[in-house]
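Internal QA ticket QA-208
Title: Verify multi-chain structure generation after dependency bump
Assignee: T.L.

Test input:
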Amino acid sequence: MEVCDELRSFEATGVYRLDGTSTGATFLDPVRLLNASYERFRIVPSAYYSRSFGPQHQEGEPEIERPEKRRKRKRNQKPKSRELNPMEQVAEARHQEARPLLLKAHESLIKAKHLLEYISKTIKDNRHTLDAGSGSENNFVELGTSWRAPFYEITLCFQKSHVLGNEEGSFHAQKTSFPLFNSIISVEGIDEAEGEFQNRRYILPRESCFLMTDFKRVRDLIPCSPNQGYNLIVVDPPWENGCVRQKEEYPTLPNRYLLYLPVQELAHPAGALLVLWITNREKLRVFVEKELLPSWGVKNPSVFYWLKVKPDGSLIGDLDLFHHRPYECLLLGYINVNTNGEQGSNFKLLEGSQVIMSVPGAHSRKPPLEKLLSEYIPGPKPSRCIELFARELFPRWTSWGNEPLHFQDTMYFSEK
Ligand code: SAM
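Actual output:
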């Protein structure tokens, strides 16, 4: 594809395949990808890319490094003065194995000058202050644990169109209230709905569905009939991890609890692609590969990398920083699919590793993956998709977790 065509396609889709591509490298713009979900609203880029703005990231000003940060960085660098312990050695070997692929992918992004100019321009041009509106955001994690939780209701306002004779008629709003916690809420119809809860408003994409519960009630998600199972299952667990605990971004779960996620029961009988986000901790990787994925029926997973870059294309940190790699891993594998036999069907089997690059949003917010993975999803089309431990909604997806409405607050949107 010509450079201009590729950029035009990126503008429309938010997906840019780099160098044609022996590295399997792709640049994603989550804002463009998410905007495809909305008719009447759009995501505010500076609200999504909030970490690329803020006072320490003023244009032209180098980030001022505080002494305590410098001390911390020293501690985090690969311990040179002592031998690595056996776990660290395995982690370092994994990193060394991934390094050439990551460097090659990053090099192909740096060479795509027209893309980089385009990204930094669009992010810069869309700079505006995040309007948190009146009052503070709702903390669903806390509200869900209160004794009042069963009594909270969300009021959804759906736009209904009147058809007058043969003409497209006017719209009228229809309001309906639903229990907010522990019940499955679906937006039926082709337009987004607006939700009201405790003086905050939420934008719910068309055909989205969510269940806001604690892990203890995750089995409420199991479909009544297997044919309503899912073809893409994305899991982004709140892994135990010093960093998350320190920042108190969200509560974590003991890793072994994940063995009880009903992944098999959620998978469509015609097959499902499972995507699991993991951290770079070696102990976790061993648990996931040896126990968790086998217990979910996933064999021989592929590894993808999410390499995080700044709007100018540079990495968000030193690639070799021992405890703070500028990348995260995703393990992908199939459930109910024979990966050895002849497929002869409507999807491609995953082959090897790929590198996804994007400018990260809020802490732990992952880029949307459906578009990138669509050709690898088995089963009938359109695919049925679910995210476990979600903080946002997508059309035709079910989102489950203790705060799936978090990023649907209107503060992240503007009207088109
Ligand atoms: N995928 C999300 C995104 O891109 O924004 C991030 C998910 S974050 C890693 C993990 C989520 O799991 C957080 O929203 C957290 O509140 C939620 N969580 C933590 N403990 C939970 C529990 N016991 N039950 C349900 N969700 C829980």
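Spot checks passed. Residues 56-70 have pLDDT under 50 and may be disordered.
Status: verified.
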